[in-house]
User: What shape does this take?
Amino acid sequence: MLLIVIILTFLLLESASGDAVDAYLLSIGGGDAIVAKSLRQSYGLDQSMLARLWLYFTSLAKLDLGWSVAFGRPVLDLILERLPNTLLLMGSATALSFGLGSALGIVAGAKPESIRDRTLSAVSLILYAIPSFWLGLVLSIVFAVQLRWLPTSGIETIASGKVGLARAADIARHLVLPVGTLALIYMALFIRVMRAGMAEAWQLDFVLFARSKGLSRTRIVLRHVARNALLPLVTMLGLQSAAMIGGSVVIESIFAIPGFGRLAQEAVSGRDAPLLMGIIVVSAVLVICVNLVVDLVYTALDPRVGASENRA
Amino acid sequence: MTIAHLSRRTLLQAGAALAASTALPTFAHAQAATAGGRLIVAADSEPKNLNPAIVASNGVFFIASKVVETLAEASFSGKDGLSPRLATSWEGSADGKSVTFKLREGVKWHDGKPFTSADVAFSALKIWKPLQNLGRLVFANLEDVETPDDTTAIFKFSKPTPLQLIRNALPVVSSVVPKHVYEGSDINASPANVKLIGTGPFKFTEYKPGEYYRLTRNADYWNKGEPKLDEVIFRVLPDRAGAGAALEAEEIQLAAFSAVPLTDLSRISKVPGIKVISKGYEALTYQLVIEINHRRKELADVKVRQAIAHAIDKKFVVDTIFLGYAAASTGPVPKNAPEFYDPTVPTYAFDVAKANALLDEAGYKKGADGKRFALKLRPAPYFNETKQFGDYLRQALSAVGIDAQLVNADAAAHQKAVYTDHDFDLAIGPPVFRGDPAISTTILVQSGIPDGVPFSNQGGYASKELDDVIAKAAVTVDTAARTDLYKQFQKLVATDLPLINVAEWGFISVARDTVVNVSNNPRWAVSNWSDTTLKS
Assistant: This one.
């Protein structure tokens, strides 16, 4: 699977017009033919496509992700430098949106078709339709430029010398706007999935049974209806993880957060094949891990899904 | 950490400079005599090789020029438009085969070793000539650099090399790096290409990829009393709207190179405490140019090219696309280069009727659908303005019956399509005029340039007359005669139109009012900033 992903990425980048040398010469304002030739030689771009692909695989087998031509640094260093920022940003955004989204989804789904439900549905629809760059800019203008409550961009205060808790608090302040922007947009999705799941569960026989047993409404909503509706939400979370690890090019650019999404974008515009493939390999591995965790969560939520049980 | 207990926030709350003068004794290098302070500047790119001796580009100079110095910098008032830095004087021999530089005494590298003529000789022979993107051309005939003593460097050329060219090129090609750091290693792979060591007013202290570069005051700078600032921080802000917001929120104090988009300028100029400055880029003029593929039979006809020139309303381009922050061009040399500029070249007024008449005359009558022929138009994606001009040109050409099909691509793809594959009929490019036509201007029209050289004549244009003038100017030592040849060059280009010059523009800086001594030389953004300071 991973193999196919790598080959496809390689071919895709290969089919794009222009190579790393074109991109580099452009960034330095030009150079002559001899410079271009020697650069191509030093990047190995003068070799055939197959030879380069083979070289990549053999070094990957040795767990060597190679050398980024656009940055002039080892790919692994770049990835390890950027990944924590993205995980922090996307992790908190996903956690926040999942928490808020499922809570609001329960509120909406507790009484389908009520005014409360309709209002929340409308709000979530609007949030979902807002482009993230617009929301990000608006929040930044209001809270950072006008009110000056929060910094406009960056991951932490430049060369502040802060350590420990002070530094964590500083990073948290910087993350409020980007995380808030992403969370608002993701939240819309979670509200809708949760609400739809609950509306469906209300129709089921066991809910009728629970009601005839005389259980309190709160108990029915939380223990019976919501718990059943949580399953598709967790599936959603698993799918979301792929997007999460890829980072958000838009939000990372607007808020100047050196993350994975921006790195991927820079790799593409710099035609940096080793870097882009490194990013994809690492993301693929992480997505596989997250999905494993999601599967394990299933077993906790739904006793019918057994980890050891043979369902064939 | 020299600034352990001082966050940027506290700095800003108290007013940057005020705080700097009162609360900064924690700075290791801070001296009571200087105003001090930390200047935070928006940067939009992080060059992988920051060594200006190898990569002579604006992106590199923006940061590196504060650390690594050139022999001379550009100046509004100095002799020959230069202000001496590491060199104090320069003199050419009558035969054009040698140039003698007297070097400044008492200059030290940031690692404490003395700067001598050996460093200049090493930089010139081992880096500028063989490795530097522009030096390869300017110093093509450099044979040797003699160093009779520590403060004299004599450049020896195998063929006559005009002093005028060397002089005009000095601010761009003459960054001196320390011999003792680079000698005996692979220069291209040296760690000092990122962690720079120079003689400049600021030392390279810290680089956090994706976040910022930090330069700190060089207390041993040769020009006593400078630099005025304690720190310069280049903060990486990839989003253009982000730079404007950060300025308004007083998180940064300066955004150069039009980091704040033109469309935001009229609004941001009204914000109290912010100034918009269009000065300081006179020697960094960008030119909006239509590159023409002369392999297309229609475009090989000079009448068609003239018709295209007549079809363009340059005033509209300047007023609407550049919002007035540009000037209409007359030819391949911009008005900002008064030494060379010739206003008497043939010009092409906006005249649709004349354009139509010229096209009829050339034999390309309008078909039943009102179209004469179709063209592939590739606007370079590097600037908003080049893309917008692509849209405009398509409309302007359709008014004279030429059906231009826009092909948009990203930077690397555009580069390959135009400069290697020649897959274009018209392209829109932003070449730079670098102080002398021989540096990066004649190459735009000269014939015989191999494929794959960006920003060069890849349109297949060849004119013996023009080539001869360019070749002659390259070896003409006498300044007046050489200048005359470049006036001829401009006339030939404006007459035969191997390419069409539409407009020329410099960048815009936006700064907080507290930043003093901004834009006081014609290459300010890429100069040393040793006199720049912050006031409260």
Q: What stands out?
A: The mean pLDDT of chain A is 83. The two ends of chain A are 23 Å apart (CA to CA). DSSP finds 13 helices and two strands in chain A.
